[in-house]
Amino acid sequence: MRRVKAFIAVVVFWASLVCPTPAAAIDLKDIIKGGALIIGGGALVKAIAEPINDFINTVTLNRGAQFQGHTKVVPIVSMGDGTRIGAAQVGGTSLQSVEDTQAVAQLEVSFQGIRVRVLIPIDSLNPIQQFRRVQGVGVTAIIDVRI
């Protein structure tokens, strides 16, 4: 956990250099609007993917709910209102399908006044250009960080 916090601090520091604010204090909203944290967010997911994946697998094993297959952690790419940073653990019985999964697309829609978030394992980090759903892979955990 200390490595994760240290990495977040480095990303925020780097972002403050790339997107300087007029005040001495760092305004996190300005950094997010500047996009630097989004770039850092993808790097953050890559940096913590393996230890978080191992942690989730250990927790589920200890609770008697271990996933019987292959897992990995990938970024969540939101499609809809705003941009968000997140990660998800995906799992599948085919190692090739799990390896093909590059991200999870999150679609936010409304159904009769109920907010619905659809999570789709995809084969691309940029769903705006083009992507395909990876068959045989599902989302097994959601990782989010309060900023």
Describe the structure concisely.
With 147 residues, the chain is of the alpha+beta class. Helices cover 39% and strands 28% of the residues. The chain has a 5-stranded mixed beta sheet.
Q: Which SSEs are present, and which pair or pack?
A:
Layout lengths: L1 H17 L9 H7 L1 H27 L7 E10 L7 E6 L2 H6 L2 E9 L2 E9 L14 E7 L4
Parallel strand pairs: 1-3
Antiparallel strand pairs: 1-2, 2-5, 3-4
Helix pairs in contact: 1-3
Describe the protein in words.
By secondary structure, the chain is of the alpha+beta class. The chain has one domain. The protein is 39% helix and 28% strand. It has four helices and five strands, in the order H-H-H-E-E-H-E-E-E. It has a five-stranded mixed β-sheet. A hairpin with a 2-residue loop joins strand 3 and strand 4. The longest helix is centred in the middle third of the chain and has 27 residues. The radius of gyration is 17 Å and the shape is globular.
Q: How many domains make up the 3D coordinates?
A: 1
The chain-level structural class is alpha+beta
General form: globular
- Distance from first to last alpha carbon: 15 Å
Low-confidence stretches: 10-39
Please indicate the percent range of residues in DSSP E strands (runs of 2 or more). 25-35%
